[in-house]
Amino acid sequence: MTSKIFKSGIIFIVCACAVLSEQARAQRTVVEEELRFAERNLGGPRLGVTFVPGNSTLVQKLKDKNIGTLISQFGWHFEYQVIPEGGGPSFVIQTIPFIGGVEYGTIIPSATLAMGVRLPEGIEIGMGPNILIGGGGKLATSLVFAVGKSINYGGVSIPINVAVATSRDGNRFSIIFGYAITSWGK
Question: Dihedral, CA atoms, 133, 147, 170, 45, nearest 10 degrees?
């Protein structure tokens, strides 16, 4: 009697697993067929200022080179954005190379790779690595956290971002803005 119940239980579990597996496969197929994404390119010029506060090692290095703690930033924003066609947040990967310090008669190159999310209302948040090329070609790295808002006006995106770069030599605070003419891809 016990072995019949055991065999019946095993058959029931196998049948239930087969039914559930088939339901999951059918549901996955429906989701894959309904899920589509649009790609959008929001690359364009960026400019802003960076402030290096306090009396950190970075501030001392800048002072040694007769560079102030408020530095201009000029660059170009490369962006890859994936937007679910059903709505919701966009997934964004950005690369932003900058040249700073031209007002001091020098060039301070840097680049940031940021990964983040942009909500449909244009609010965005991201983070990623930053590389700063100092005097003598020395590389300095930091971690960047950024928040901002993109304002859309007649097909033109106007992003305004605030970023903090943290490193052992000192922190940097930046305000960056620019524009991009929206181009779509599939």
Answer: 30
Rounded Cα gap, residues 138 and 142, in angstroms = 13
Nearest CA to 48 out of 176, 169, 168 is that of 176
Instruction: Render pLDDT for 39-59 as a digit per residue (tens, 0 to 9).
Output: 667 789 999 999 999 999 989
pLDDT-derived band at 4, boundaries 50, 70, 90: low
| Nearest-angstrom CA–CA distance, 95 and 133 | 16
As given in the structure block, the two tokens for residue 24 are 């999951």
Query: Which residues are CB-contacts of 57 (< 8 A; sequence separation ≥ 6)?
Result: 168, 169, 170
For residues 116 and 145, what is the distance between their CA atoms, to the nearest angstrom?
Answer: 10
Specify the DSSP element, H or E, that contains 26: helix 2-34
